[in-house]
Here is the input.
Amino acid sequence: MYCPFCRNPDSRVVDSRLSDDGSSIRRRRQCTECGRRFSTMETASLSVSKRSGVAEPFSRGKIISGVRKACQGRPVTDDDLAKLAQEVEESIRASGAAEVDANEVGLAILEPLRRLDVVAYLRFASVYRAFESLEDFETSIADLRREYPDGTDRRDESAAAEQ
Here is the structure.
């Protein structure tokens, strides 16, 4: 790390603190040449490799915009989408890999989305898993019916509990 004041390449760490969300570390450094102090933020980078072979930085915003389309017209708030994107990022980072395949990101979205809204899940899964026939939809709906035999999902159950 170069000192921003004298461009000396050597500095020592005086203090380290974890950020509030735990995703980065703030380090207070002191230059060994001029003695001035400065701060740095360190984060672990996470890249997503696309089918085309191009790698790009992971983006919660892209998760939210992709899932928002599936949630159009559904009772899903922006906070719900932000929590979903955070959960997806945490599950991907837990794998420990610095680069993940775009397909893995899609798989990581499916389960939290199913818990959030089953209709949005079906919409997203139909595109993501490339449903080609009515049988694909029927199979997916049958799986959901086994999971929610009374026809309500967890979102319906939590809303009923609040009333």
User: Anything to note?
Assistant: Confidence is low (pLDDT under 50) at residues 159-163. Residues 118 and 144 are 8 Å apart (CA to CA). The first helix runs from residue 60 to 70.
